[in-house]
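cron nightly-structures :: item 1 of 1
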Amino acid sequence: MVRVVPIELETTFAEGTVNAFLVIGKTISLVDTGNPGKESFQQFKAKLEENGVRLSDLDQIVLTHIHIDHSGGIPYIQQEIDVPIYVHEMASGPLNADRDDFEKAQQFFRDFITGCGANFDEHIVRRRYRKENWRNVEYLREGDTVRLGGAEFKVVHVPGHSQSDILLWNQESGISFAGDHLIKAFSVNAFIEPPDPGERERPKPLLQYRDSLKKVRQLPLATIYPGHGEVFFDHIALIDQRFQEQEKRCNQILHILEDGAKTIYEINRQMYPHLHGQSVFLGLSQIQGHLDLLVSRQQVRFEQQGLIMIYHAI
C-alpha cells in the first residue's frame, strides 16, 4: 500500500492552486510538478522538505498532462536530478515541436478566433516559441502500467481537457490520480486544439471528453486525487453532474439561437459577459465544444460566411 502526500502549490491561474503528489511506498514517485518559474520551484522544494523528501529521493515523474501548471517544474527539476519522465504519447507532438510547428499552431488559434467572429488581436493568448529540452522522456499508451511508489497503476487515456490527459488507477486500492480530467470544485474546459500531426480536422474535445467520462464512470475508483482542489470519492455522481451541466449549456445555446443565427462570439457575449481580453478564448472554446455536440445531434447547423462561421438552430 502506498501513501499519497498532496503538494499544493500557488498558481496565477484562475484555479488559485494546483496539486502535485508524492506517492510513497517502496520508492518515492512524483505525479505532476506544478508551475513554471523559479519562485514556484522553490515553493515546491520547500514543501517536499516539509515532508522529509528531497529531489534526489524521487525515482520518476509521471505527468497527468502537459499543461504548463502541471509540467512547468520539469526544467528546474532536471537541473538537479535525472529521472525518467512519463507522459502520454499524445504529448510527443507538442514536446518535439519546432518553430514551424509552433507558428502553424498559432495560426490555427488566430483562424479559430477570427472564425468565431472575434478580434484575434484582442483575444488571442500570446505565446513565445520555446524549445522543450526534456531528457529521459518515456511515452505511455492506454492500458500501460506504471509503478508509483512501487505500486502498479494502470494508464487510462482520457482526452478532452487536453489530448495528452491520462488517469492513473491502482486496481487493488482504487486510488487514482485524475489530473484535470475530473475535479470536484469546478467543471473543466475541453480546450480547442490544432489538428494532430498528419490530420486536417481539429479534434472535437467535448465529444472526446464525454467519451472519456463514460469510460471512467465504469471504473471502480475509490479515492480520487485531482489536479486542483480536494480529494473526493464519488466519481459517478460527479460525472453525472458534469453531464447535466453540459446539457444545461446546450439548452442555453439553443435558446440563444432561437432569436436567429449567431457567431460563436455573439453566443459567448450572452453566456459569458464577464469574460474580457484573453479570457474570452475560454468561453469561445467552451461554446465551440457544445456546438460540436449539438451538430452531432443534428440540432444545429453551420455555414461559413467568408472567414466566419455562423450557427443556426435546426
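cron nightly-structures :: done
The first strand starts at residue 3 and ends at 10.
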